[in-house]
Amino acid sequence: MKMFYFTDAMCSWCYGFSPVVKKLKEDHPEIDLQIISGGFSPGSKQVVTEEYKDFLEYHWTNVNSRSGQYFDHSMKFVSNTFRYDTESSSRALTVVQKIFPHKDFEFLNILQKSFYVEGKDITNGEILAALAEEIGIERTVFLENFNSDDMKRKTLEGFEFSRQLGVKGFPTLLTLENGTVKVISHGFQPYENLKPAVEDWLKNTMVSQMNAGESCTDGACEC
């Protein structure tokens, strides 16, 4: 059973939601959770001015209050060259999904910790390559893929897929069944709030699959 998780490493509410997704994966290994880097602000030229820093701190404080996730408010990633462009970190995740697809959620968590806790500039390719080494991807292999036109294209496809399904914000969990989009969760919520919606979806999906697989006439039942 497939579920799509639309997220972004540089979205603070997604960082707050990561423990919830971790719990979801632990409780329901039967769910094939597809992580999509949906594109929070790709190509942004936003400079972290004092005003924008206040904006970030306001949201980071709210995320911390609701999720318990720690933030380092010193924001060591801020520099004269830093722009709040989320394309690079999204592309890094796309590279990992190509090389080690089973490690994409682990890498997403590494990106988030590096940015929000350690203050690393995860828009920088060299820093992203160093983070990829933590999950066993050689620096040269990562950078070769990271700088390729193919990975740039696949990253843009993720952004477009997000738009096609009507994703308006991150984090979002949804399913796509027979062309119909069902939103399981939009925005941050604790696991105890998410759990009933997930279990209801699982129950309904199993019933639908059972019904779809059975066909009975007067003489026989077929599947």
UniProtKB/TrEMBL annotation:
Pfam families: DSBA. Residues 6-197 form the DSBA-like thioredoxin domain. InterPro entries: DSBA-like_thioredoxin_dom, Thioredoxin-like_sf. The keyword Transport does not apply. Keywords: Isomerase. The keyword Isomerase applies. One of its GO terms (molecular function) is oxidoreductase activity. This is Dithiol-disulfide isomerase.
